């Protein structure tokens, strides 16, 4: 059973460019969350997708957007990249039925995409 | 609102010594609490979770944590550190809608 997968592994972009990161959730999971982890910090919640819609959003600007496909995979898009967007971007998935709930289900994390903005 | 605070950004222990990583939480509802470990250049792996079934929770790799409501704490312990335990450890609390709030992490160094 494949866990959460993310692509690409590493990415280098220039300020002002746009980037798309991809995530496939664990089998049996339909909810995908994205986190940004800056160097030396804990992951910060960006947003969560369920049934192809953004359900929750953290304190991130509109430059951060996403999409979820019918097969539950997801994309994170960042426009007008800033140096401060350099970070490890983590995708996490959780089981069917947990979206929008206050539950004890853990989130399963992918290995992340390391984005460097120069 | 939910949040966690991890005391001590860096902890060093000798191999074979007790590991104690501290986490205090703030939650407006009965909390669900988690400990994750992150090895260099990898994602997060769940060590254990508290779901209100038992206050002492046992996880993988010999780790355990005790939920203490009176102290709003969920400290992570391991009786005897191993070199392979060197990693970054994150405490997290589940918010509404299964959104996770993470602490800033504790880097564990194991000295041979």
Provide a short characterization of the protein structure:
With about 120 residues, chain A is mainly β. Helix content of chain A is about 0%, strand content about 50%.
Can you put this structure into words, describing what you see?
The complex is a heterodimer of chains A (118) and B (112). Chain A contains no helices and eleven strands. Chain A is mainly beta and 118 residues long. Chain B is mainly beta and 112 residues long. Helices cover 0% and strands 55% of the residues of chain B. In chain B, strand 4 (33-38) and strand 5 form a beta hairpin. The termini of chain B are far apart. Chains A and B meet through strand 4, strand 5, strand 9 and strand 10 of A and strand 5, strand 9 and strand 10 of B.
Describe the protein's topology.
The complex is a heterodimer of chains A (118) and B (112).
Chain A: E1 5-7, E2 10-13, E3 19-24, E4 29-37, E5 44-50, E6 53-57, E7 64-68, E8 74-78, E9 87-95, E10 108-109, E11 113-117
Chain B: E1 3-7, E2 10-14, E3 19-26, E4 33-38, E5 44-50, E6 56-58, E7 64-68, E8 73-78, E9 87-94, E10 100-102, E11 106-111
Parallel strand pairs in B: 2-11
Antiparallel strand pairs in B: 1-3, 3-8, 4-5, 4-9, 6-7, 7-8, 9-10, 9-11
